[in-house]
Specification:
With 230 residues, the chain is of the alpha+beta class. The chain has 2 domains: 5-86 and 225-229, 3-Layer(aba) Sandwich (Aminopeptidase); 89-219, Aminopeptidase (3-Layer(aba) Sandwich). The protein is built from 5 helices and 11 strands. The protein has helices spanning 10-15, 47-55, 112-122, 177-191, 205-213, and strands spanning 23-24, 29-32, 40-42, 64-68, 78-91, 104-106, 138-142, 145-152, 160-168, 195-201, 217-229. Strands 4-11-5-10-9-8-7-6 form an 8-stranded mixed sheet, with helices on both faces. It starts with 9 loop residues before the first helix and ends with a strand.
Length: 230
């Protein structure tokens, strides 16, 4: 059975495991290379770790995103800019049908500008210049335009992989594109022996309903805390 405990502190585990090569900062607190996004984590809420966490902020426009089981307290010299409740969901049951879909393409470095454009416009989550390198992303083009995409992000431990970056331009919504792309991402993760998981903002009932129909179940509530310099 897959150990699910790493999901409680996924960023911390990711930055000390499969993505340790992208981690920056002292031992007590780490952030991922900012080009990949703003995710960070501290060892605990003690004085040393909180000071280390604050030291990761690189200026007034920088932000750190912490995803934990509770709201993270602001270290001295910082402030909480925003707090958002999340629902963490896990697909550890029967897999959805994954018949080959000829319209889905594997996205590459050549697609990075369009991937950034759709992500920044629709805001499925934080997006940096190298976010597309977290893992494999897939897309569907309509009349040559990247209409929708989905991919993967955090790998907190062997056997666990996050589905992320799910987004569709507004004019192409309602056509089932997100569903098809999520199924493709899940199939790739399953082929590697990994259990898929994801997050939704707790108020997004439409997205949660879609994820449930694809075999995801609620695992636990999480909190996203965004820190900035005071």
């Amino acid at each position: 059975m897959t150990d699910l405990s790493p999901l409680d502190r996924q960023v911390w585990n990711m930055l000390h495991g499969r993505f340790a090569h992208l981690a920056q900062g002292p031992q007590a607190a780490k952030r991922i290379d900012p080009r990949y996004g703003p995710f960070a984590a501290a060892r605990d809420a003690g004085e040393e770790a909180q000071a280390a966490l604050a030291s990761l902020l690189q200026g007034p426009d920088d932000r750190l995103w912490l995803v934990e089981t509770e709201e993270w307290p602001a270290p001295p010299g910082t402030r909480v800019e925003r707090v958002a409740p999340l629902l963490q969901m896990l697909a550890d049951g029967d897999a959805p049908d994954d018949e080959p879909d000829p319209d889905i393409i594997a996205l590459t470095e050549e697609d990075a500008p369009e991937m950034a454009e759709i992500a920044l416009a629709t805001e499925p989550g934080p997006w940096g210049t190298l976010t597309h390198r977290y893992g494999q992303f897939y897309g569907i083009r309509i009349d040559g335009r990247l209409a929708a995409m989905a991919g993967e992000r955090m790998l907190p431990a062997p056997g666990l992989a996050e589905v992320s970056g799910v987004c569709t331009w507004p004019e192409y919504r309602g056509q089932g594109l997100a569903r098809r792309l999520i199924k493709r991402v899940m199939a790739g993760q399953r082929a590697r022996g990994e259990v898929s998981y994801l997050h939704s903002y707790s108020h997004n009932e439409g997205a949660i309903g879609l994820y449930k129909s694809l075999g995801f179940r609620p695992r636990r509530n999480m909190i996203s805390t965004i820190l900035a310099l005071a």
